[in-house]
Amino acid sequence: MLNEDTVASITDANLQDAIDVDVVASSSTANFAISGAVAISTNKKKAVGIAGAVTVNVQDSMTHAFMERATLKNVGDVSVLANADGSIFAVAAGLGGAPRGFGVAGSVAINLITSDTQAYMDASSVIGKSLAVHSRDKTSIIAVGGAIAFGGKAGIGVGFAYNQISGGATALLSATHVDVSGLLSVTATNSAQITGVAAAIAVAVAGFEESSPTAEGSEANERNTYAVAVAAGVSINRIKSDSHASIQSTGTSQTRSTAGSVVVKADDDQLRINGVAGGVAISVSKGKSTGKSTSVAAGISVVFNEVERTTDALVDNSYLTLSLIHI
Known about the structure:
By secondary structure, the chain is mostly beta strands. The chain has one domain (14-204, 226-278, 295-326). The protein has no helices and 13 strands. Strands 1, 2, 3, 4, 5, 6, 7, 8, 9, 10, 11, 12 and 13 form a 13-stranded parallel beta sheet that branches. The chain is rod-shaped and about 100 Å long. The two termini are 38 Å apart.
């Protein structure tokens, strides 16, 4: 589990005649996890090979950049920026085999990212060239869960992957007097992408040799054979995203905030899920003697993708004098 908090701030400050003022909080986290297991049994009787691999990755990050109760006079470009990048790459693979018995293999990959990225300016005053309040959140998960099982009587393979990204980006300008000659921009950008793969292959090949004649020279006793192969791949992927950009309670009817132009934008166009699941089962039953031969094979694949998003850009309860506005 990885927890990371990154904060950059200016509070209760008075700044004058500064060329530029930047408050920047940036974080970048990357998890790489690979797990594997192999089990092979060569016993002639009661042979069982069982292999399982599990990888669990939890990433929780907070990235905040803000100004509170700050007074800036005769300054240049002012920026409050929060940038967060988080990624997970995980592989879990299992191989189980028993040429004369039962082969079982399974893998589980669970990956969770929670991200809270905020840029805001509150209860402040800015007189300068431009003001930018920007928040950007970029997260990604690539996860693979694979299993291969081989058995002389039965082969069972299961691959499972669960991936979830939650959180988002918030940019806010509130209760702040603004007097800038250039651009006033408040933007929030959220990009979340998941690629989840769960696959399993199961093979069962059963057979028997000729039995020896009895003492009286009779024919070989009748024997039956069976082979069962089951493979399942399950991939579940969820994205819960919030993107908020707003200007609230900025300026009054007596003292309006002014800017050359205003941009308020919330963007979550880069939300993507690619879910892949596969199950391949092969079953063969054969013999060289009399008797019944039975083979059963079943392959199952399930993919479930879900995206929940909230996106808004607004100007509320504010008094602005400007030449151009884009929301």
